[in-house]
Amino acid sequence: MDSEDLTGAQLLAAFAALANPHRLRIIAALADGRQYVSLLARQLGMSRPLLHMHLQKLQAAGLVSGELELSEDGKAVKYFEATEFSLHVTPHAIKGLAPTLPEPADNGKETD
Fold first, then answer.
1. Which of 19, 34, 56, 63 is an S-S bond match for 81, by CB 3.0 to 4.6 Å?
2. At 76, which helix (H) or strand (E)?
3. Is 85 exposed, middle or buried (0-12, 13-18, 19+ CB in 10 A)?
């Protein structure tokens, strides 16, 4: 994934997925190679259900990929790995993506 190839919606999804310290730690843990969910949960000190929730968000954004495999004893084991991505964002890049941004759900009302 390269930021030059993304739509505005895809860039927003990537930023939303990365805007969480747990998900950044998951990406960091997967940087050196794929891991299966149980080991990853132990390494991060996180419950498997919580880890799955974060992995789903990262996978939906295209930042990780998962694969189900059968172990030697016949158990299904889910492995995840970080995908290669590069997000280089500049004002001009955002200008180019602006036409592909989704409309805000709040109809333009400021909440900040």
1. 34
2. strand 76-82
3. middle
Residue 33's pLDDT is 94
Token pair, residue 97, equals 């993506």
> Which amino acid, one-letter code, is at 93?
A
pLDDT value at residue 30: 97
Q: For residues 104 and 24, which has the higher predicted lDDT (pLDDT)? A: 24
* Assigned token pair, 30: 């997967």
Residue bearing the bigger pLDDT, 108 or 73:
73
Q: Which residue has the higher pLDDT, 30 or 87?
A: 30
| Nearest alpha-carbon partner for 69 in 36, 30, 27 | 36
| Side chain identity at residue 7, one-letter code | T
How far, in Å, CA of 1 to CA of 82, rounded? 11
| Inter-residue contact 9 to 102 (CB < 8 Å) | yes
In three-state secondary structure terms, 69 is: strand
Q: Which fold has domain 3-98?
A: Arc Repressor Mutant, subunit A (1.10.10)
CA gap 65, 80 in Å, rounded:
6
- On average, the pLDDT of the chain sits at 88
